[in-house]
Amino acid sequence: MSHTLTAPIGEKQITIETGKIAKQADGAVTVRMGDTIVLVAAVGAAKAKPGQDFFPLTVDYREKAAAAGKFPGGYFKREGRPTEKEILTSRLIDRPIRPLFPKGWYNEVQVQSIVLSADGENDPDMLSLLGASAALMVSDIPWEGPIGAARIGRIGGKFVANPTHAEMADSDLDLVYVGNETDLVMYEGSAREISNEDFVAALKFGHEAIQPMVAMQKELAAKAARAKREITLNIVPAEILKEAKALAGDRIVTALLTPGKLAREGAVSVITTGISAKLVEKFGAEKVTEFVLKDAFYYIQKEAVRGLVMNENKRLDGRDFTTVRPIVSEVGLLPRAHGSAMFQRGETQAITLCTLGTGEDAQEFDSYTGGATEKKFILHYNFPNYSVGETGRISGPGRREIGHGALAERSLEPMVPVDTYPYSIRITSEITESNGSSSMATVCGGCLALMDAGVPIARPVAGISIGLCTEHDDKDKISSYKLLTDILGWEDGFCDMDCKIAGTEKGITGFQLDLKLRGIPHSLMAEAVTLAYYARLQVLAEMAKTLAEPRKEISKYAPRIETIKINPEKIGALIGPGGKNIKKLVEESGCEINIEDDGTVNIYSVSEEGMKIAREAITGMTAEAEIGKIYRGKVVTIKEFGAFVEFLPGKDGLVHISEMANFRVKQTEDIVKLGDEIWVKCLGVDEKGRVRLSRRAAMAERDAEMGGGTAERLEGAEGAGQPVGDNPDRPERAEQGDRGEHGGQGPRGDRPDRGERRDRGPRPQGGRRDRAR
């Protein structure tokens, strides 16, 4: 039997249906908003695998091209490995639902979401997160939901729930908010320097917006949920845990306070190795399995770390709760990188490189569900095994690397002038040491690398992580807590929160919250946001000691760029038929040339000579005729009424016979012949784009500039047609004055080299020569 419920989210409606599709799954729902529909199904294994010592939750979100009425790209015409967006959405679903499964239950659970319909306006990621919660609610899988989810934007100063892609283009906030009836569960996103107060207000708005969805799921579960299954928790036997604690005593606390991560791990390892042998000796190898030992020592260390924080106000490295670890940074490390930096905070170190590329280097991708299809700013994060002193499988980036890179990318991007900066930008972060919040070290190191590369960012960006340690009462409500600035890896592992906030001195640009709790109150989060602000200012001050602002010049190894603005109607002429013109120009100049639809032409070159070739060619090919300007042109057609002269590449104009000379011209050929190069002046352009040129006006103006009587002969000396028989091999004749249109000074017998003049027909009547006589 199917059940359908609808609830408002802002000005829209969300509909959830169950019992119609995927009925063999433990729980399945479809969620719809507009014409975007997702199917989410959840299945839990009947029993845990032998030896299973962790909770194997798999969340998989997939977009289908058919949902948008498209074919997949590529040869096989079938969806392949998950895209970056699919991986990030899978993580988005995973993080808030994971803490709500029972501790110690290790049956495998899979939650799968498929986009069945995409309208290109409503993003299915929020629907998938909501669907995961609803599918688990109606299933027999043990899970302490429900949760609601919404994307919050801010448009024109007003918060909006689940805006469309088009609306998000005008938003200065992209907040994904997840919560339950009373508390905040998870958030992530980016903003354009939103203030602390506005950020907290956005969280509250998000919490109110999701309440109808929480209520709708409860109603749906009451109508359609299966009874929850009986489960067996895999926990350490009480007597073994008690004995392990007794054997450890206070030694474990002393070991945990050992300075230095590796030394601390070594000291703890010595104790646990000795205790393990004694536990096996007392209880036997069958009871004291690897899982039992691992779980027992986890609980012992967790209890010790939390006891130090909550009862003794101590942290493992001796800091107080608000102090940021020592910071060391450096820029310009790598000679060939366009920008590089090293950022170290305590025992977390990132080496970051910034590369400037051309427009062709932008990342393009399919976007079946709407939104952007290209990225000019990219950040890639790598976390090798040696950064934590371990060995392991070496492979490509996993979900964690992609998620951390995306967080750093969206934290830096609001300060990068992506829309106006002509370069594509790639930052790579190599984590070379790690002991807490390497993603925030990537933000800091990435910012320094950007400034070292000369990228004109608006303001420097830094990030910090805030942790939380809590105690709960008998009703499982937080009774006391401590917030921890700049958490260590062990504090992340044994405490309750990893709240990452990045931004400038002006406001927040990136954020992400991960909890091990079922939720936290908003008042507590407001404190964390304030704490992160003051810590961020400390980090920014340390970074400024190394490099306070972007360099004025980019690296000599980066491609130079010049931007030319042309008439969009000239784009076709520049490209040429089948791209002939632009391909030839790229080959001749060695440059990369990108042409935008608005007529912006970006030329990228590492060679000044190549840049000059490309610049002059593009300017010539796309130049417009300027009235009153003199051009050097080539006669391409001769008519009875005048000559057509190519005065710009591919651009002809008519020199009427009356504009050939300052005397009456009987035949065009008397003055010019095909192929001659002559000076012409632009007289005007009519409404059809036809250009009127004048040789007579050009010669008069040039005569005036040269002192009179020389322009005509110099025109011939420079390779133009020689209407009066000037000999370019005898430039000294120029001293004798003009013997062409402007009249000669000596008898014709003085010019034996100009006999060809006699072959041009009778001498023009009424010219200056006649008057001079």
Entry keywords:
single chain; 773 residues; alpha+beta; eight-stranded antiparallel sheet; 18 helices; 29 strands; elongated; disordered C terminus
Structural description of this entry:
- This protein is α+β, with helices and mostly antiparallel strands.
- It is built from 18 helices and 29 strands.
- The strands form 6 sheets. The protein has an 8-stranded antiparallel beta sheet, sandwiched between helices.
- The model is unreliable at 717-773 (pLDDT under 50).
Strand order within the widest beta sheet: 8-7-9-10-21-20-18-19
Number of strands: 29
Instruction: Supply the helix-strand structural class.
Output: alpha+beta
The chain-level mean pLDDT equals 89
CA-based gyration radius: 38 Å
Residue share in β-strands: 25-35%
What best-fitting shape do the alpha-carbon axes yield?
elongated
Question: What is the element layout, followed by pairings?
Answer:
Elements: E1 3-9, E2 12-18, E3 27-33, E4 36-44, E5 57-63, H1 84-97, E6 109-117, H2 124-138, E7 148-155, E8 158-161, H3 165-168, E9 171-179, E10 184-194, H4 196-224, H5 238-248, H6 251-256, H7 261-283, H8 290-312, E11 327-331, E12 339-345, E13 348-357, E14 363-364, E15 374-375, E16 377-382, H9 399-412, E17 424-433, H10 438-452, E18 462-472, E19 478-485, H11 489-494, E20 497-503, E21 508-515, H12 522-546, E22 560-565, H13 571-575, H14 580-589, E23 592-595, E24 600-605, H15 608-622, E25 630-639, E26 642-648, E27 651-656, E28 677-685, E29 691-694, H16 695-706, H17 711-717, H18 768-772
Parallel strand pairs: 5-6, 16-17, 27-29
Antiparallel strand pairs: 1-2, 2-3, 3-4, 4-6, 7-8, 7-9, 9-10, 10-21, 11-12, 12-13, 13-17, 14-15, 18-19, 18-20, 20-21, 22-24, 23-24, 25-26, 25-28, 26-27, 28-29
Helix pairs in contact: 1-2, 1-9, 2-4, 4-12, 5-7, 5-8, 9-10, 14-15
